[in-house]
Specification:
Length: 179
């Protein structure tokens, strides 16, 4: 997960409110995020966010990120603040088992529910498209991401040695999508 999530979230109220073409979510102190589809003009902002979230060897090059975003059968969701600025994003490939490519959240927006909103919206879209499960990889040393995904029902199914270009191993995680 991009930038990971710092530590477990404390129980807070999260309420999703539907809007015309996007969902608006309020997280206990009135901070609102709109979950919307990626727009081409978002790309540079999202790429810079990925560079801030991940170390070299794990962060994507412009070309790699562009390829994942444009991949046939993929979708990218953006969490935008009330001012319209992206605070996080998720890139997902659809299929019988969907695949989370990356989830990135700006440091200032962490612990506000952005990552959870993005992941839930992606899982909902995958379910609607007929996916029965979703998988992802996270670096073995990214304990914050591991904790985040476990809280969201993901389980480690194996370790993939030297998965990342910097030689770091990855944990392969999976979640069954039901009803």
């Amino acid at each position: 997960m991009g930038c990971g999530k710092p530590g477990p979230l404390r129980r807070r109220r999260l309420r999703a409110v539907s809007a015309t073409s996007a969902s608006l979510a309020r997280y206990n102190v009135g901070v609102a995020f709109v979950i919307r589809d990626f727009k081409p003009e978002d790309f540079e902002t999202l790429w810079r966010m990925d560079q801030e979230c991940f170390p070299p060897g794990i962060a994507y090059s412009r070309q790699e990120l562009k390829g994942y975003v444009r991949h046939r059968g993929s979708f990218t969701l953006v969490a935008a603040a009330e001012d319209g600025n992206p605070e996080g994003f998720i890139v997902v490939h659809e299929g019988p088992t969907g695949h989370v490519i990356t989830i990135d959240v700006r440091a200032a927006a962490r612990r506000s529910g952005v990552g959870s909103l993005l992941l839930q919206a992606a899982e909902d879209r995958l379910r609607a498209a007929g996916s029965h499960a979703v998988g992802l990889e996270t670096a073995v040393d990214n304990l914050a991401a591991l904790s985040f995904y476990k809280r969201h029902g993901y389980n480690v199914i194996r370790t993939w040695p030297r998965y990342y270009s910097n030689g770091m191993d990855a944990l392969v995680m999976k979640k069954e999508l039901t009803g």
